[in-house]
Specification:
This protein is α/β, with parallel strands linked by helices and about 375 residues long. It has 3 domains: about 1-110, no CATH class; about 110-205, no CATH class; about 205-360, Rossmann fold, CATH 3.40.50. It has 11 helices and 16 strands. A 6-stranded parallel sheet has the order 13-12-11-14-15-16, sandwiched between helices. A 5-stranded antiparallel sheet has the order 3-2-1-5-4, with helices on both faces. The chain has a 5-stranded antiparallel sheet with strand order 8-7-6-10-9, with helices on both faces. Strand 11, helix 6 (about 215-225) and strand 12 (about 230-235) form a beta-alpha-beta unit. Helix 6 crosses helix 11 and helix 7 runs parallel beside helix 8 (about 285-295). The radius of gyration is 23 Å and the shape is elongated. About 45% of the residues are buried. This is Xanthine dehydrogenase accessory factor. InterPro entries: MoCofactor_Util/Proc, XdhC_CoxI, XdhC_Rossmann_dom. It comes from Microlunatus antarcticus.
C-alpha cells in the first residue's frame, strides 16, 4: 500500500465504509518522467478518481488497469515509456519512462491497519509501507510490511530473510525521509535480482525555518507552505511575531533565532531536508543565527537576505566569529535567484526557486537554453517522500 499523503483521506473514507478501491502508484521513473516515485491515483468503487500519476499522460490506461484489478484482485505492474507504441497510445508524449504498480486495497487486508497508519501520518509519526511489486512467484506480489523506526513491523513478505532485509533498509529510507524502490534476490539476498520492493516513507514534512518577522518573511512562509514545507517563523520581538501576521505558517515562535535554532538541533529536530531563511536584515539577529546554522552539517539550505554590501559585512562578522570558509561557502546571500524581484511576493518566488534548484542540484537556467531531460535523472531509489 503506497498511497501518497494527498489521497489518504479518500482511501480512508472508502476503507471505513467497508469498500475496496484500486490504488495506482508510480514506483520507478527514468529520464523526463513527469512525476516522482510515490505519486498515487485512486479509483474508487464508484469509478471516481482521486489523485494523479503523470499530469494526464497515462491516467486513461491506468484507469482501465485499475478496474481490472478491482474486479479480479490481482496486483499488476505496468511500464510506460516514450519509445513504446503503447506509451504513444496512452499519451506519454512528455518523454521518460514510468513504472506503475496497481493494487487492490480493502478492509479485509490482513497485513494493513489503515486506521493506525492514517493516525501515524496525521500525528507526524514516521512509518513506512513496503510492498512487493515484482517477484517470480506471483502470489508474493502485493505482499506488504508496515515498518516503524522503533523496530516494530506488521505483515510479512513470505520469509524471515526477506522480512529482515526489507525492514532494515526501509528503516534507513524512513530515517532519511525517502521513498524508493529496493532490489534483492528472490529470497531477500543482498546480491541478485528478482524481488523488487517499493517503500513508501511517511516521514514528517521537511521543515522551513524563517527567521525575522517581516513582510518578506510572510511571503516566504506562504510560499514554503505551498511547496509542502512545515513552516516555522521565529523572531525575538513579540509585537511582530504573531500568528495573525503569518497565517500561512504552521508555527510562530517568539525567541532569539540563534537560541531557537540551537535548541532544535540539540533535540535532533533538523535534518538534511531542513531549509533556513534568515530575513530579519538586522545583524544582531542574523549573525548569531547564521553562525549556528552554518556549523550544523545536516541542513539542506541556508540563505540570508541583504544587499551585496550587507552580505559582505555579514560574512566578515561570521569570519570574526570563527566560521571557516567551507562553512561560509554554504551560505546563499544575497538570498534567491536573479529574477529582478522587487516585491515581497516576487522575492519569495526567487527564494523558493533557489531552494528547489539547490535540492535538485540544478543551475536554474531557462529550460529553452538547456539540453537534456527536463526533470533530470533521479535515482531509481528516489529522494521523495510519500508524505
Amino acid at each position: 500500500m503506497t498511497a501518497s499523503r494527498d489521497v489518504l483521506p479518500a482511501l480512508l473514507g472508502w476503507w471505513r465504509a467497508g469498500q475496496a478501491c484500486a490504488l495506482a502508484t508510480v514506483v520507478g521513473t527514468w529520464s523526463s518522467a513527469p512525476r516522482q516515485p510515490g505519486a498515487s491515483m485512486l479509483v474508487g468503487p464508484d469509478g471516481s478518481v482521486v489523485g494523479s500519476l503523470s499530469g494526464g499522460c497515462v491516467e486513461g490506461d491506468v484507469y482501465a488497469v485499475a478496474e481490472q484489478v478491482l474486479a479480479d484482485g490481482r496486483a499488476t505492474h505496468r511500464r510506460y515509456g516514450v519509445g513504446d507504441a503503447e506509451a504513444a497510445e496512452v499519451g506519454l508524449t512528455c518523454g521518460g519512462t514510468i513504472d506503475v504498480f496497481v493494487e487492490r486495497v480493502a478492509p479485509d487486508d490482513q497485513d494493513l491497519d489503515l486506521e493506525l497508519l492514517a493516525d501515524d501520518v496525521a500525528a507526524g509519526r514516521p512509518v513506512a509501507v513496503a510492498t512487493v511489486v515484482r517477484h517470480p512467484d506471483p502470489a508474493l506480489v502485493g505482499r506488504r510490511l508496515v515498518v516503524r523506526p522503533d523496530g516494530g513491523s506488521r505483515g510479512t513478505l513470505g520469509s524471515p530473510r526477506r522480512d529482515d532485509a526489507v525492514v532494515d533498509d526501509a528503516r534507513g529510507l524512513l530515517g532519511a525521509g525517502r521513498t524508493g524502490l529496493l532490489t534483492y534476490g528472490p529470497d531477500g539476498q543482498r546480491r541478485g535480482q528478482g524481488l523488487e520492493v517499493f517503500v513508501a516513507a511517511y516521514a514528517p514534512r521537511a521543515r522551513m525555518l524563517v527567521f525575522g518577522a517581516t513582510d518578506h518573511a510572510a511571503a516566504v512562509a506562504a510560499t514554503g507552505t505551498f511547496l509542502g514545507y512545515c513552516v516555522t517563523v521565529c523572531d525575538a520581538r513579540p509585537v511582530f511575531a504573531t500568528a495573525s501576521r503569518f497565517p500561512g505558517a504552521d508555527e510562530v515562535v517568539v525567541d532569539w533565532p540563534h537560541r531557537y535554532l540551537r535548541a532544535q538541533a540539540e533535540q535532533d529536530l533538523l535534518d538534511e531536508r531542513t531549509v533556513v531563511c534568515v530575513l530579519s536584515h538586522d545583524p544582531k539577529f542574523d549573525v548569531p543565527v547564521l553562525e549556528v546554522a552554518l556549523r550544523l552539517p545536516r541542513l539542506g539550505y541556508v540563505g540570508a537576505m541583504g544587499s551585496r554590501r550587507t552580505s559582505e559585512h555579514t560574512r566578515a562578522a561570521l569570519r570574526s566569529a570563527g566560521v571557516g570558509e567551507p562553512e561560509l561557502a554554504r551560505l546563499s546571500s544575497p538570498i534567491g535567484l536573479d529574477l529582478g524581484a522587487r516585491t515581497p511576493e516576487e522575492t519569495a518566488v526567487s527564494v523558493a526557486a533557489e531552494i528547489i534548484a539547490a535540492r535538485h542540484g540544478r543551475e536554474a537556467r531557462p529550460l529553452h537554453l538547456v539540453d537534456g531531460p527536463i526533470h533530470g535523472e533521479p535515482e531509481q531509489a528516489g529522494a521523495t517522500s510519500a508524505g
